[in-house]
Input
Amino acid sequence: MKDSQNAPHAGTTRSNETLVTQNTLFSAMQPVIHEIYSDSGRTIGAVLPGHAIYDAMPRFTGRAEPGSLVEIFSWGVKLGEGYANDEGIFSFVTTTPFADGQQSIYIKSTLASGESAESPSFSLHYHAIKHPVDAEQPVNQEPVLSKPVIEGAYDNRNGEKLIEDGVTADTTPLLKGSADPLTIVYFSDFLGNSVGSVQANEEGRWELEVSGFIEGPIYATAVDANNPASVSYQSVGIAIQI
Output
């Protein structure tokens, strides 16, 4: 009878132990990403979840359990790690680049005791660096070439006048800018259609007249004339409407 009377108590004890274990497993603070910062590619600055990113290895900043190891994953592939400081803040640049295309990102924080917590996943769309005219050409995803700069568009029908509002009646406006010396600079519209190319001179200067119907931003990408795998990030676009 004693054993029978103790059975419910023993069962309650096991249940309490399970509850304590569950509370311990979920006691770590759920990590949160506050900012994804891109310092390379077409756009520079904070990138919101669900948007496009052109930086293969951006900086992640957020909050997790103080002192915890913070790991970042996309589709289960570890992108990098760092530690939260005494105030629970972490900030580090990933060391494994994104694969091209859609990302499913989450972070995991782990305490020295082994307790861990994960964040919900969110999406980003990474646009890998590609050769501007040869889609089959393998390309280094960590560029050594500088990003070209489109300094301005000019109406050159009678002299050269800077097009300040992005709209021109000149059917062959002149673009001017800079790139690494002797690189081939390719230009495309916002749909990826080619609008011309030119080689930068020994001082890194280039000029190009563009023609045809163009509406929207034009972007520039530089390619090493002797190494087609060496491609720059795409430039900041310049808005122009012909």
Summary: The first helix runs from residue 2 to 25.
